[in-house]
Amino acid sequence: MPKITSSHFPDTLELRDFFSNEAANVYLYDNFAVVEVTEGTTLSFKNGFTLLLKGLSIIGSKPWIYVSNRINSYSVKPTDYKYLNKVPTLKGLAIVSTSTSEINNAHLEKAFFTKPFNIVNSLDEAYDWGKGILAKN
Questions:
Q1: Tens digit of pLDDT for each residue in 32-54?
Q2: Spatial CA neighbour of 117 closest among 75, 82, 66, 78
Q3: Rounded CA gap, 103 and 95, in Å?
Q4: Which of 1, 114, 116, 134 has its CA 20 to 30 A from that of 108?
Q5: How many domains does the chain have?
Q6: What is the pTM of this model?
Q7: Which domain holds residue 23?
Q8: How is 6-32 classified by DSSP, letter by letter?
Q9: How wide is the angle at C-alpha 108 spanned by C-alphas 60 and 113, nearest 5°?
Q10: At 92, which helix (H) or strand (E)?
Q11: Tens digits of per-residue pLDDT, 93-127?
Q12: Cα–Cα distance, 89 to 71 (Å, whole number)
């Protein structure tokens, strides 16, 4: 299979799969899922569940990091983090944003997530942080 590249993560990584629905686009790498939610969406378990199931079926039993690349303005139902907390292979969540309001929202969301959680300014930072989390597991 030829190397598929994407501008969504470091060039050294191979994009393994891409899928989407009306709520978000998901870019899968070996141990990372980069999610970009559609503008104006309220992301919840209801509209994100099919994406989560598809991603888990592809990732399998490997540990992985969820990277929320917040390039669009949207909202999250923070109480739905309880479902992500139950995914045993999910080892951490990184939120990528430079927007003050998005960063403030992410700090509120952090209270609902029980695994490692980090707010960073770039995908490269998210990748480096995630590699460190995965190395500990």
A1: 999 999 999 999 999 999 999 99
A2: 66
A3: 8
A4: 134
A5: 1
A6: 0.91
A7: 17-136
A8: -TTS-TTSPP-EEEE-SSEEEEE-SSE
A9: 30
A10: strand 90-96
A11: 999 999 999 999 999 999 999 999 999 999 999 99
A12: 26
User: What is the 3-state composition of the chain as percent helix, strand, coil, each rounded to the nearest 5?
Assistant: 35, 25, 40
Domain assignment of residue 54, yes or no: yes
CA atoms within 13 A of residue 3's CA, in its CB half-sphere: 6
Joined tokens for residue 21: 């629905």
Non-local CB neighbours of 109 within 8 Å, separated by 6+ positions: 76, 78, 81, 95, 117
Neighbouring C-beta atoms of residue 16, cutoff 10 Å: 16
Q: How many alpha carbons lie under 13 Å from residue 85 in its C-beta half-sphere?
A: 12
**Residue 47's CATH number:** 3.30.750.24
Check: CB of residue 17 under 8 Å from CB of residue 9.
Answer: no
Q: Which residue has the tokens 């629905």?
A: 21
